[in-house]
Amino acid sequence: MKRTLVVVPTFNEIGNIFQVYEKIFKAVDDLHLLIVDDNSPDGTGAAADELAKKDERVSVIHRKGKQGLGSAYIHGMKYALEKGFNLVVAMDADLSHDPANLPKMIALTEEYDLVIGSRYVKDGGMVNWGVGRFFISRLANGFCRVVLDIHQQDCSGGYKCYRAELLKTIGMDNFFSYGYSFQVEILYRALKKGAKVIEVPIIFVNRHEGKSKLTINELAQFGWTVLKLRFFAWFGLV
User: Fold this and answer.
1) CA 54, CA 68: separation in Å to the nearest integer?
2) In the prediction, which pLDDT does 133 show?
3) What CA–CA distance (Å, rounded) separates 197 from 100?
4) Domain count, the chain
5) Which pTM value belongs to this model?
6) CATH of the domain at 31
C-alpha cells in the first residue's frame, strides 16, 4: 500500500476545517491528513488539535504566523518525506477542492508522477466565480503557458497529487516563491525534471465560508515568478 498524506494549509478556516476533515476521510479512509496552520486568530489551530486528539490519522503543524501558502506546502512536503509517505496531496482548506476526486487522483499515480486537478480541461469548470476573477485566472494561465512554453491548461491550480520521489528529485530547498505563485514554480520544476504529468477535470467551487487570501500583491508576485523561472531556465538553473 502506498502511504498518502494530504497537506492542507490553514489561516482563518474555522468555518471549513471540520467539513474538510469529514469529506477527506469519507472519500478515502486509509490516508493521513496534515494541517499546517499559520497561527490563525479565529481558532483554526485549536480546532485542528481537537481533530488530531480524536483521530490518529490527523497531525497538526503550528507555525508562528502567516508565512504564505507555498511556504506551508513546502513545510508539509518536507514532513511527508521525513515520515516516509509515498504520495503527497496538496489541497485547499476552503472546500473549493472536492475530496471526492481523491481516489481517482491517487490511482493515477500508478502511471504518473504528478496528477493535477484541472479547472480548464474538458469537463472541468468553476462555480460561483465572477467574470473578473475568471478573466484574471485565464490570463495568468495563458501567460504561464506562453512564457514558460508548457502545455498544461491549469498551471496555477492548487489541487495536486505528487509522487514523493518526484518531490525528492525536485529538491524542497530549491524554491524561491512562497505564496500562490508556488503552484506554477513546482509545476515548472517538475516538468524540467522530466515528470510525467496528467490533468484530470475538477469542478472548482468558490469558498462559502471565510475570505479569499488572494491579493494584488500575490498577483504581482505570480507574474514575477513566471518571468524569474524563464530567466533561470535560460541559464540552466531550474
Assistant:
1) 28
2) 81
3) 20
4) 1
5) 0.93
6) 3.90.550.10
The cell numbers describing 181, all together, are 505563485
**CA–CA gap between residue 17 and residue 14 (Å, rounded):** 6
Average pLDDT over residues 183-203: 97
Calculate mean pLDDT across residues 104-111.
98
The pLDDT, as a whole number, for residue 57 is 98
Sort 54 into a burial class: Cβ within 10 Å, 0-12 / 13-18 / 19+: exposed
CB-neighbour burial class of residue 125 (10 A; exposed 0-12, middle 13-18, buried 19+): middle
What are the φ and ψ backbone dihedral angles of 67, each rounded to 5 degrees?
-115, 0
Q: What would the mean pLDDT of 49-72 be, rounded to a whole number?
A: 96
**Which amino acid, residue 209?**
E
Query: What mean pLDDT comes out for the span 102-118?
Result: 98
- Paired strand residues for 34: 7, 59
pLDDT tens for each residue of 80-107:
999 999 999 999 999 999 999 999 999 9
Position with higher pLDDT, 133 vs 145: 145
Q: What is the domain extent for residue 12?
A: 4-234
